[in-house]
Inverse folding.
Protein backbone atom coordinates (compact mmCIF):
# COMPACT_ATOMS: atom_id res chain seq x y z
CA UNK A 1 0.00 0.00 0.00
CA UNK A 2 1.25 3.47 -0.84
CA UNK A 3 2.11 5.64 2.17
CA UNK A 4 0.01 8.80 1.87
CA UNK A 5 1.29 10.32 5.13
CA UNK A 6 2.86 13.81 4.69
CA UNK A 7 3.62 16.95 6.66
CA UNK A 8 0.55 18.97 7.28
CA UNK A 9 1.37 22.47 5.96
CA UNK A 10 -1.32 24.45 7.63
CA UNK A 11 -1.98 28.19 7.31
CA UNK A 12 -0.42 28.70 10.77
CA UNK A 13 2.87 27.28 9.52
CA UNK A 14 2.88 29.38 6.37
CA UNK A 15 1.98 32.47 8.35
CA UNK A 16 4.75 31.99 10.90
CA UNK A 17 7.37 31.24 8.19
CA UNK A 18 6.50 34.40 6.22
CA UNK A 19 6.33 36.62 9.30
CA UNK A 20 9.53 35.05 10.68
CA UNK A 21 11.32 35.73 7.42
CA UNK A 22 10.13 39.36 7.46
CA UNK A 23 11.31 39.79 11.07
CA UNK A 24 14.72 38.24 10.32
CA UNK A 25 15.09 40.42 7.20
CA UNK A 26 14.19 43.55 9.15
CA UNK A 27 16.61 42.59 11.94
CA UNK A 28 19.50 42.06 9.48
CA UNK A 29 18.65 45.26 7.60
CA UNK A 30 18.38 47.22 10.87
CA UNK A 31 21.69 45.81 12.17
CA UNK A 32 23.47 46.69 8.90
CA UNK A 33 22.09 50.23 8.97
CA UNK A 34 23.06 50.53 12.62
CA UNK A 35 26.63 49.40 11.95
CA UNK A 36 26.86 51.88 9.06
CA UNK A 37 25.55 54.73 11.23
CA UNK A 38 27.89 53.81 14.10
CA UNK A 39 30.83 53.81 11.70
CA UNK A 40 29.82 57.24 10.39
CA UNK A 41 29.59 58.55 13.98
CA UNK A 42 32.99 57.07 14.76
CA UNK A 43 34.53 58.63 11.61
CA UNK A 44 33.09 62.03 12.55
CA UNK A 45 34.52 61.68 16.07
CA UNK A 46 37.98 60.76 14.72
CA UNK A 47 37.91 63.77 12.37
CA UNK A 48 36.93 66.10 15.23
CA UNK A 49 39.61 64.63 17.53
CA UNK A 50 42.13 65.17 14.78
CA UNK A 51 41.01 68.79 14.46
CA UNK A 52 41.56 69.24 18.21
CA UNK A 53 44.97 67.57 18.05
CA UNK A 54 46.02 69.97 15.31
CA UNK A 55 45.89 72.89 17.79
CA UNK A 56 48.89 71.92 19.95
CA UNK A 57 50.99 70.95 16.91
CA UNK A 58 51.09 74.57 15.74
CA UNK A 59 54.17 76.65 16.43
CA UNK A 60 54.42 79.62 18.76
CA UNK A 61 57.99 80.92 18.65
CA UNK A 62 59.59 77.85 17.03
CA UNK A 63 60.75 77.87 13.42
CA UNK A 64 59.61 74.30 12.90
CA UNK A 65 58.05 71.52 14.88
CA UNK A 66 57.49 67.80 14.30
CA UNK A 67 54.48 66.00 15.78
CA UNK A 68 53.16 62.49 15.34
CA UNK A 69 49.55 61.31 15.59
CA UNK A 70 48.73 57.60 15.86
CA UNK A 71 45.38 56.02 15.06
CA UNK A 72 43.99 52.81 16.56
CA UNK A 73 43.51 51.24 13.11
CA UNK A 74 44.73 52.05 9.65
CA UNK A 75 42.97 55.27 8.67
CA UNK A 76 42.48 57.33 5.55
CA UNK A 77 42.38 61.12 5.87
CA UNK A 78 40.67 63.02 3.09
CA UNK A 79 42.14 66.51 2.81
CA UNK A 80 39.76 68.97 1.23
CA UNK A 81 40.30 72.69 0.70
CA UNK A 82 37.89 75.39 -0.47
CA UNK A 83 39.12 78.91 -1.12
CA UNK A 84 35.68 80.58 -1.15
CA UNK A 85 34.63 82.91 1.69
CA UNK A 86 36.63 85.30 3.87
CA UNK A 87 39.20 82.71 4.95
CA UNK A 88 38.34 79.69 2.81
CA UNK A 89 37.83 76.43 4.59
CA UNK A 90 39.85 73.33 5.47
CA UNK A 91 37.85 70.12 5.71
CA UNK A 92 39.11 66.77 6.99
CA UNK A 93 37.17 63.53 6.69
CA UNK A 94 38.32 60.14 7.89
CA UNK A 95 37.66 56.55 6.95
CA UNK A 96 38.84 53.62 9.07
CA UNK A 97 39.74 50.15 7.86
CA UNK A 98 37.36 47.51 9.20
CA UNK A 99 37.11 43.74 9.19
CA UNK A 100 33.31 43.84 8.99
CA UNK A 101 31.47 44.78 5.79
CA UNK A 102 33.27 47.05 3.34
CA UNK A 103 37.02 47.28 3.95
CA UNK A 104 36.88 51.08 3.93
CA UNK A 105 33.77 52.80 5.18
CA UNK A 106 32.59 55.88 3.27
CA UNK A 107 34.25 59.03 4.71
CA UNK A 108 32.36 60.42 7.70
CA UNK A 109 31.17 63.95 8.45
CA UNK A 110 33.92 66.50 7.81
CA UNK A 111 35.66 68.47 10.54
CA UNK A 112 35.62 72.06 9.31
CA UNK A 113 38.42 74.49 10.15
CA UNK A 114 38.99 78.08 9.07
CA UNK A 115 42.37 78.55 10.76
CA UNK A 116 44.26 75.41 9.61
CA UNK A 117 46.26 74.89 6.41
CA UNK A 118 47.11 71.26 5.69
CA UNK A 119 49.54 70.60 2.85
CA UNK A 120 49.42 66.95 1.86
CA UNK A 121 48.20 64.58 -0.79
CA UNK A 122 44.43 64.40 -1.18
CA UNK A 123 44.30 61.05 0.65
CA UNK A 124 46.72 60.21 3.46
CA UNK A 125 46.61 56.58 4.50
CA UNK A 126 48.35 54.94 7.46
CA UNK A 127 48.29 54.11 11.15
CA UNK A 128 50.50 57.06 11.99
CA UNK A 129 50.80 60.52 10.48
CA UNK A 130 53.75 62.87 10.69
CA UNK A 131 53.06 66.61 10.94
CA UNK A 132 55.72 69.18 10.18
CA UNK A 133 54.57 72.65 11.30
CA UNK A 134 56.25 75.71 9.85
CA UNK A 135 55.22 79.34 10.40
CA UNK A 136 54.33 81.23 7.23
CA UNK A 137 55.33 84.91 7.24
CA UNK A 138 54.38 87.60 4.71
CA UNK A 139 56.11 89.68 6.26
CA UNK A 140 54.26 89.17 9.59
CA UNK A 141 53.22 85.71 10.78
CA UNK A 142 50.12 84.70 8.85
CA UNK A 143 49.54 81.10 9.91
CA UNK A 144 51.19 77.73 10.41
CA UNK A 145 51.70 75.56 7.38
CA UNK A 146 51.01 71.95 8.41
CA UNK A 147 52.84 69.51 6.14
CA UNK A 148 51.38 66.03 6.62
CA UNK A 149 52.41 62.60 5.39
CA UNK A 150 51.83 59.06 6.61
CA UNK A 151 54.08 56.25 7.86
CA UNK A 152 53.42 54.47 4.55
CA UNK A 153 55.24 57.12 2.54
CA UNK A 154 58.93 57.99 2.55
CA UNK A 155 60.59 61.05 1.07
CA UNK A 156 64.19 61.31 0.01
CA UNK A 157 65.66 64.81 -0.39
CA UNK A 158 68.64 64.78 -2.74
CA UNK A 159 71.16 67.60 -2.22
CA UNK A 160 68.82 70.10 -0.53
CA UNK A 161 70.07 73.59 0.43
CA UNK A 162 72.12 73.58 3.64
CA UNK A 163 69.42 75.24 5.76
CA UNK A 164 66.86 72.57 4.75
CA UNK A 165 69.39 69.78 5.37
CA UNK A 166 70.26 71.14 8.81
CA UNK A 167 66.60 71.52 9.75
CA UNK A 168 65.77 67.94 8.73
CA UNK A 169 68.80 66.56 10.51
CA UNK A 170 67.94 68.40 13.72
CA UNK A 171 64.19 67.69 13.76
CA UNK A 172 64.56 64.09 12.49
CA UNK A 173 61.10 63.69 10.95
CA UNK A 174 60.12 60.05 10.38
CA UNK A 175 60.12 59.03 6.72
CA UNK A 176 62.13 62.04 5.55
CA UNK A 177 65.75 61.38 4.62
CA UNK A 178 68.51 63.50 3.17
CA UNK A 179 71.14 62.19 0.79
CA UNK A 180 73.69 63.53 -1.66
CA UNK A 181 73.01 60.89 -4.33
CA UNK A 182 69.59 59.80 -5.55
CA UNK A 183 70.83 56.21 -5.93
CA UNK A 184 71.07 56.09 -2.13
CA UNK A 185 67.31 56.68 -1.79
CA UNK A 186 65.23 53.74 -0.56
CA UNK A 187 63.23 51.89 -3.19
CA UNK A 188 59.63 53.16 -3.29
CA UNK A 189 60.45 56.49 -1.67
CA UNK A 190 59.48 59.79 -3.28
CA UNK A 191 62.73 61.24 -4.65
CA UNK A 192 62.94 65.04 -4.35
CA UNK A 193 65.84 66.55 -6.31
CA UNK A 194 67.08 70.08 -5.66
CA UNK A 195 70.01 70.31 -8.09
CA UNK A 196 69.09 67.82 -10.80
CA UNK A 197 65.87 67.01 -12.66
CA UNK A 198 64.02 63.87 -13.71
CA UNK A 199 63.04 62.86 -10.15
CA UNK A 200 59.54 62.32 -8.71
CA UNK A 201 59.66 65.92 -7.52
CA UNK A 202 62.03 68.50 -9.03
CA UNK A 203 62.76 71.63 -7.03
CA UNK A 204 64.41 74.65 -8.61
CA UNK A 205 65.76 77.09 -6.06
CA UNK A 206 66.59 79.50 -8.91
CA UNK A 207 63.13 79.80 -10.48
CA UNK A 208 61.49 79.05 -7.09
CA UNK A 209 59.37 76.30 -8.57
CA UNK A 210 58.42 72.71 -7.80
CA UNK A 211 57.51 70.29 -10.61
CA UNK A 212 55.77 66.94 -10.16
CA UNK A 213 53.70 64.81 -12.52
CA UNK A 214 54.39 67.38 -15.23
CA UNK A 215 52.74 70.24 -13.26
CA UNK A 216 54.59 73.17 -11.73
CA UNK A 217 53.86 75.49 -8.83
CA UNK A 218 55.79 78.48 -7.53
CA UNK A 219 56.89 79.10 -3.96
CA UNK A 220 58.73 81.87 -2.20
CA UNK A 221 61.33 81.56 0.52
CA UNK A 222 62.12 85.22 1.17
CA UNK A 223 60.67 85.10 4.69
CA UNK A 224 60.69 81.36 5.45
CA UNK A 225 60.69 78.03 3.62
CA UNK A 226 57.20 76.87 4.64
CA UNK A 227 55.83 77.17 1.09
CA UNK A 228 58.74 75.12 -0.26
CA UNK A 229 57.77 72.19 1.99
CA UNK A 230 54.10 72.75 1.16
CA UNK A 231 54.81 72.62 -2.58
CA UNK A 232 56.85 69.40 -2.24
CA UNK A 233 54.33 67.49 -0.12
CA UNK A 234 50.95 68.76 -1.33
CA UNK A 235 49.04 67.86 -4.46
CA UNK A 236 49.15 70.75 -6.93
CA UNK A 237 45.45 71.60 -6.60
CA UNK A 238 45.60 71.53 -2.78
CA UNK A 239 48.74 73.68 -2.74
CA UNK A 240 47.14 76.36 -4.91
CA UNK A 241 43.97 76.33 -2.79
CA UNK A 242 45.84 76.56 0.52
CA UNK A 243 48.04 79.34 -0.87
CA UNK A 244 44.93 81.34 -1.77
CA UNK A 245 43.57 80.80 1.75
CA UNK A 246 46.89 81.91 3.28
CA UNK A 247 46.77 85.05 1.16
CA UNK A 248 43.21 85.76 2.28
CA UNK A 249 44.29 85.53 5.91
CA UNK A 250 47.33 87.73 5.16
CA UNK A 251 44.92 90.21 3.66
CA UNK A 252 42.68 90.27 6.76
CA UNK A 253 45.75 90.60 9.01
CA UNK A 254 47.04 93.50 6.86
CA UNK A 255 43.76 95.32 7.48
CA UNK A 256 44.06 94.58 11.21
CA UNK A 257 47.59 96.04 11.21
CA UNK A 258 46.31 99.09 9.30
CA UNK A 259 43.73 99.64 12.05
CA UNK A 260 46.43 99.08 14.68
CA UNK A 261 48.42 101.80 12.97
CA UNK A 262 45.44 104.11 13.57
CA UNK A 263 45.42 103.18 17.28
CA UNK A 264 49.17 103.90 17.52
CA UNK A 265 48.68 107.26 15.80
CA UNK A 266 46.19 108.20 18.52
CA UNK A 267 48.90 107.28 21.06
CA UNK A 268 51.22 109.73 19.28
CA UNK A 269 53.24 107.30 17.16
CA UNK A 270 52.45 107.49 13.48
CA UNK A 271 53.67 104.68 11.20
CA UNK A 272 52.54 105.92 7.75
CA UNK A 273 52.21 102.31 6.62
CA UNK A 274 48.43 102.39 6.09
CA UNK A 275 48.56 102.69 2.29
CA UNK A 276 51.13 99.89 1.97
CA UNK A 277 49.06 97.62 4.22
CA UNK A 278 45.91 98.26 2.19
CA UNK A 279 47.93 97.55 -0.97
CA UNK A 280 49.11 94.23 0.46
CA UNK A 281 45.57 93.38 1.56
CA UNK A 282 44.19 94.01 -1.94
CA UNK A 283 47.03 92.12 -3.63
CA UNK A 284 46.42 89.14 -1.35
CA UNK A 285 42.79 88.95 -2.43
CA UNK A 286 43.62 89.17 -6.13
CA UNK A 287 45.99 86.20 -6.29
CA UNK A 288 44.83 83.61 -8.87
CA UNK A 289 47.62 81.06 -8.46
CA UNK A 290 51.17 80.66 -7.16
CA UNK A 291 52.61 82.38 -10.27
CA UNK A 292 51.14 85.67 -8.94
CA UNK A 293 53.28 85.50 -5.76
CA UNK A 294 56.10 87.76 -7.02
CA UNK A 295 54.46 91.22 -6.69
CA UNK A 296 52.97 90.36 -3.27
CA UNK A 297 56.36 89.23 -1.98
CA UNK A 298 57.94 92.49 -3.19
CA UNK A 299 55.27 94.52 -1.39
CA UNK A 300 55.78 92.46 1.77
CA UNK A 301 59.56 92.95 1.62
CA UNK A 302 59.19 96.72 1.29
CA UNK A 303 56.71 96.73 4.19
CA UNK A 304 59.12 94.76 6.37
CA UNK A 305 61.95 97.22 5.70
CA UNK A 306 59.74 100.22 6.51
CA UNK A 307 58.34 98.57 9.65
CA UNK A 308 61.79 97.64 10.99
CA UNK A 309 62.90 101.28 11.19
CA UNK A 310 59.83 102.44 13.11
CA UNK A 311 60.11 103.36 16.77
CA UNK A 312 56.72 101.72 17.39
CA UNK A 313 56.76 98.67 15.13
CA UNK A 314 53.46 97.25 13.98
CA UNK A 315 54.66 93.62 13.74
CA UNK B 1 -16.91 26.42 25.05
CA UNK B 2 -19.95 28.69 25.09
CA UNK B 3 -18.09 31.93 24.41
CA UNK B 4 -15.97 30.76 21.48
CA UNK B 5 -18.82 29.31 19.59
CA UNK B 6 -18.33 31.61 16.59
CA UNK B 7 -14.62 30.83 16.10
CA UNK B 8 -12.82 27.75 14.92
CA UNK B 9 -9.70 26.48 16.74
CA UNK B 10 -7.51 27.58 13.79
CA UNK B 11 -8.84 31.14 13.84
CA UNK B 12 -8.11 31.34 17.54
CA UNK B 13 -4.49 30.30 16.94
CA UNK B 14 -4.06 32.92 14.20
CA UNK B 15 -5.43 35.58 16.50
CA UNK B 16 -3.08 34.50 19.28
CA UNK B 17 -0.15 34.62 16.88
CA UNK B 18 -1.14 38.05 15.63
CA UNK B 19 -1.25 39.36 19.20
CA UNK B 20 2.14 37.83 19.96
CA UNK B 21 3.57 39.42 16.80
CA UNK B 22 2.16 42.83 17.67
CA UNK B 23 3.60 42.47 21.17
CA UNK B 24 7.01 41.51 19.72
CA UNK B 25 6.99 44.49 17.32
CA UNK B 26 6.01 46.88 20.13
CA UNK B 27 8.70 45.40 22.37
CA UNK B 28 11.42 45.82 19.72
CA UNK B 29 10.18 49.34 18.90
CA UNK B 30 10.46 50.29 22.56
CA UNK B 31 13.93 48.75 22.80
CA UNK B 32 14.95 50.70 19.66
CA UNK B 33 13.54 53.96 21.07
CA UNK B 34 15.42 53.48 24.37
CA UNK B 35 18.64 52.53 22.50
CA UNK B 36 18.47 55.50 20.13
CA UNK B 37 17.65 58.00 22.87
CA UNK B 38 20.65 56.77 24.92
CA UNK B 39 22.88 56.77 21.83
CA UNK B 40 21.81 60.26 20.74
CA UNK B 41 22.42 61.57 24.25
CA UNK B 42 25.88 59.91 24.24
CA UNK B 43 26.71 61.46 20.86
CA UNK B 44 25.51 64.85 22.09
CA UNK B 45 27.62 64.46 25.23
CA UNK B 46 30.69 63.41 23.29
CA UNK B 47 30.20 66.34 20.86
CA UNK B 48 30.04 68.75 23.81
CA UNK B 49 33.16 67.13 25.33
CA UNK B 50 34.99 67.45 22.03
CA UNK B 51 33.99 71.13 21.74
CA UNK B 52 35.20 71.75 25.30
CA UNK B 53 38.42 69.90 24.58
CA UNK B 54 38.89 72.08 21.51
CA UNK B 55 38.33 75.24 23.55
CA UNK B 56 40.84 73.99 26.14
CA UNK B 57 43.48 73.29 23.51
CA UNK B 58 42.75 76.55 21.71
CA UNK B 59 43.04 78.69 24.83
CA UNK B 60 46.54 77.24 25.37
CA UNK B 61 47.62 78.13 21.85
CA UNK B 62 45.77 81.39 21.20
CA UNK B 63 48.64 83.53 22.47
CA UNK B 64 50.74 82.15 19.59
CA UNK B 65 48.24 82.82 16.80
CA UNK B 66 48.97 85.73 14.45
CA UNK B 67 45.80 87.59 15.47
CA UNK B 68 46.77 87.55 19.17
CA UNK B 69 50.56 87.37 19.30
CA UNK B 70 52.76 90.28 20.19
CA UNK B 71 56.14 90.40 18.49
CA UNK B 72 57.70 91.96 21.56
CA UNK B 73 57.86 88.84 23.74
CA UNK B 74 57.09 85.13 23.59
CA UNK B 75 53.57 84.18 24.68
CA UNK B 76 52.53 87.81 25.04
CA UNK B 77 49.37 89.00 23.36
CA UNK B 78 48.85 92.30 21.60
CA UNK B 79 45.92 94.16 23.15
CA UNK B 80 45.81 96.72 20.33
CA UNK B 81 45.22 93.95 17.75
CA UNK B 82 42.61 92.24 19.90
CA UNK B 83 40.75 95.48 20.42
CA UNK B 84 40.66 95.94 16.63
CA UNK B 85 39.41 92.38 16.06
CA UNK B 86 36.45 93.12 18.35
CA UNK B 87 34.72 95.04 15.57
CA UNK B 88 35.79 92.82 12.69
CA UNK B 89 32.79 90.84 11.48
CA UNK B 90 35.04 88.69 9.27
CA UNK B 91 36.37 86.93 12.39
CA UNK B 92 32.92 86.03 13.77
CA UNK B 93 33.11 82.32 12.91
CA UNK B 94 36.86 82.00 12.60
CA UNK B 95 37.53 80.23 15.93
CA UNK B 96 34.31 78.20 16.21
CA UNK B 97 33.82 79.26 19.84
CA UNK B 98 30.88 80.44 21.92
CA UNK B 99 32.90 82.78 24.07
CA UNK B 100 36.28 84.39 23.62
CA UNK B 101 37.56 87.25 25.72
CA UNK B 102 40.76 88.78 27.03
CA UNK B 103 40.74 90.31 30.47
CA UNK B 104 43.34 92.41 32.26
CA UNK B 105 43.35 91.16 35.83
CA UNK B 106 46.04 93.46 37.18
CA UNK B 107 45.86 96.43 37.52
CA UNK B 108 42.22 96.07 38.42
CA UNK B 109 39.78 97.93 36.17
CA UNK B 110 36.09 97.43 35.63
CA UNK B 111 34.62 98.12 32.23
CA UNK B 112 34.39 96.40 28.85
CA UNK B 113 36.73 98.11 26.38
CA UNK B 114 35.23 100.46 23.81
CA UNK B 115 36.47 103.38 21.74
CA UNK B 116 35.76 105.83 24.56
CA UNK B 117 37.64 104.10 27.40
CA UNK B 118 40.38 102.10 25.60
CA UNK B 119 43.02 101.29 26.94
CA UNK B 120 41.82 102.08 30.48
CA UNK B 121 39.41 99.16 30.62
CA UNK B 122 39.24 95.59 31.85
CA UNK B 123 37.90 93.28 29.13
CA UNK B 124 37.80 92.85 25.36
CA UNK B 125 35.07 90.38 24.43
CA UNK B 126 35.51 89.05 20.90
CA UNK B 127 32.75 86.42 20.88
CA UNK B 128 29.82 86.14 23.24
CA UNK B 129 26.83 83.96 22.47
CA UNK B 130 24.11 82.53 24.68
CA UNK B 131 24.77 79.49 26.87
CA UNK B 132 28.55 79.78 27.04
CA UNK B 133 29.00 77.30 29.90
CA UNK B 134 32.12 77.66 32.03
CA UNK B 135 34.95 79.14 29.95
CA UNK B 136 38.51 77.78 30.12
CA UNK B 137 41.18 80.32 30.92
CA UNK B 138 44.93 80.81 30.66
CA UNK B 139 47.21 83.47 32.09
CA UNK B 140 48.99 85.70 29.57
CA UNK B 141 50.93 88.93 29.39
CA UNK B 142 48.79 91.54 27.67
CA UNK B 143 50.98 94.11 25.92
CA UNK B 144 50.33 97.33 24.02
CA UNK B 145 52.07 100.50 22.92
CA UNK B 146 51.83 103.17 25.58
CA UNK B 147 51.59 106.88 24.86
CA UNK B 148 55.06 107.25 26.40
CA UNK B 149 56.37 105.17 23.46
CA UNK B 150 57.23 101.97 25.23
CA UNK B 151 55.62 98.55 25.41
CA UNK B 152 53.44 98.23 28.47
CA UNK B 153 52.58 94.71 29.59
CA UNK B 154 49.96 93.80 32.17
CA UNK B 155 48.78 90.54 33.69
CA UNK B 156 45.78 89.11 31.88
CA UNK B 157 43.75 86.04 31.11
CA UNK B 158 42.28 84.57 27.95
CA UNK B 159 38.86 82.95 28.30
CA UNK B 160 37.39 80.54 25.74
CA UNK B 161 34.35 78.32 25.72
CA UNK B 162 33.40 75.69 23.15
CA UNK B 163 30.36 75.90 20.97
CA UNK B 164 27.41 73.98 22.37
CA UNK B 165 25.15 71.70 20.41
CA UNK B 166 21.94 73.38 19.29
Amino acid sequence: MKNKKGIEFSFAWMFSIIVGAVIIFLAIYGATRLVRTERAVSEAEVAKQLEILLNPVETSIEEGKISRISFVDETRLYNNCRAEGTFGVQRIRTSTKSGIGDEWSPPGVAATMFNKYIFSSEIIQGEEIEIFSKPFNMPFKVADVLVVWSDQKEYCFVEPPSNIEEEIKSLKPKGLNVTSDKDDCKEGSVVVCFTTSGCDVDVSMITKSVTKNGESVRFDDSFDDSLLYGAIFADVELYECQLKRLMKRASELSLAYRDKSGVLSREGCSTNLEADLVGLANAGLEIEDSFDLGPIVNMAKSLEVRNDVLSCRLF
Amino acid sequence: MCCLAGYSKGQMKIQQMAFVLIAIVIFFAMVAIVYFSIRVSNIRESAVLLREEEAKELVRKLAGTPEFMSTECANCIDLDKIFILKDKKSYDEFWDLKYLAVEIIYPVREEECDNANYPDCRRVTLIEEDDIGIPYSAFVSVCRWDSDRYIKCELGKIYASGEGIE
Summary: Chain B has a mean pLDDT of 85.
